[in-house]
Amino acid sequence: MKIAVADEHGYVSGHFGHCPTYTLFNIGENNKINEKLTIPTPGHQPGFLPGYLASMGVTHIIAGGMGQRAQMLFGQNGIITLIGVSGPVNKAVEDFLAGRLEMGESTCDHGHGHGDGHGHGDCHGEGRGCQE
């Protein structure tokens, strides 16, 4: 299993497509973290990240928020999305592995579309849509 966490200065980013980095965790036997690697985001290009992260072997994504279209595209690439998560990145992964990760409503997707064809919410009125 490989988990990618939308990372913003060590905390789970509320906006998956706008985070500066992704922290990748390779999980081995007995749910032990074998490797942790932080990579810069490759930038946002609609529809790019699902294939990119899938090609890296990512099986799960943890983020605060993500639009419905992005969730669908990740699902089509065999990646499970875990959204509505907050707090430190390391704790989120530890909680997930222990079966106690608390998820909630996506911090991005509240059904207020932008008419941009992406199906993203309004990200709490910040004037930017959540991206894949």
Q: Can you describe this structure?
A:
With 132 residues, the protein is of the alpha/beta class. The chain has one domain (2-125): Nucleotidyltransferase, domain 5 (2-Layer Sandwich), CATH 3.30.420.130. The protein is 20% helix and 23% strand. The protein is built from 3 helices and 6 strands. Strands 1, 2, 3, 4, 5 and 6 form a 6-stranded mixed β-sheet that branches. Strand 1 and strand 2 form a beta hairpin. The radius of gyration is 14 Å and the shape is globular.
Gyration radius, to the nearest Å? Answer: 14 Å
Mean pLDDT: 82
Distance between the termini: 21 Å
CATH class: Alpha Beta
Order of helices and strands: EEEEHEHEH
Structural class: alpha/beta
What's the CATH topology label?
Answer: Nucleotidyltransferase, domain 5
Q: Characterize the biggest β-sheet.
A: 6 strands, mixed
Number of domain modules: 1
Q: What is the strand content? A: 15-25%
Shape: globular
CATH superfamily: Dinitrogenase iron-molybdenum cofactor biosynthesis domain
CATH architecture: 2-Layer Sandwich
Low-confidence stretches: 109-132
Per DSSP, the total helix count is 3
Helix content: 10-25%
Number of E strands? 6
Layout: helices, strands, pairs:
Layout: E1 2-8, E2 11-12, E3 21-27, E4 33-40, H1 48-55, E5 60-62, H2 68-76, E6 80-82, H3 89-97
Parallel strand pairs: 1-5, 5-6
Antiparallel strand pairs: 1-2, 1-3, 3-4
Helix pairs in contact: 1-2
